């Protein structure tokens, strides 16, 4: 009788087969243990289901509360939680907020200046003063997109919370103040995998950034 090329009819063969079986069993246990360790380590890092998340559920809740309260910009919340703004954007609830009835609602009165609060991308108009404050802060952030008309060029757009790019986002951060535009969509994916791409560097240089050694915004260049 042959098992894995070993003649189990002989005494030596049976001994060899027994030894190999023990080794195989040992290896299976080792792999299982490593897998368990890997899962435990992943859990310890706060990762669930394979999608890396730099914020705990408590932090996400806090970020949402601060954002909804309207006193903090996304940049301030990101600073507080020591994560890039893109991470905060990725976790904020994108639903349209329905203000609780107990809260005093101030309907924005139309004035000539109110056009600046309008989202330039899709024209969303904030309806409450708190929302207008949010929107001003949100619109201050430049999002970098691949230029649909010119190959190899990037353009910047400004987004309110209703049209801001979901899924992928990746910060460009001034090494002094941490401020900067955010890569959106496929650009974010590229930025995660490499340094600043040529088109993004060109955009930054044109906007007054220093991109040679340290990344410095126009205010710190
Ligand atoms: Zn918008
Ligand atoms: Zn700066």
From TrEMBL:
Q: Which residues cross the membrane?
A: none
* Domain of life where this protein originates: Bacteria
Q: Which organism is it from?
A: Rhodococcus opacus (Nocardia opaca)
Q: What is this protein called?
A: Resolvase, N-terminal
InterPro entries to which the protein is assigned, alphabetical: Homeodomain-like_sf, Resolv_N, Resolvase-like_N_sf, Resolvase_HTH_dom
Say which family it is in: Belongs to the site-specific recombinase resolvase family.
- The residue ranges of the Resolvase/invertase-type recombinase catalytic domain are 1-46
A GO molecular function annotation here is: DNA binding
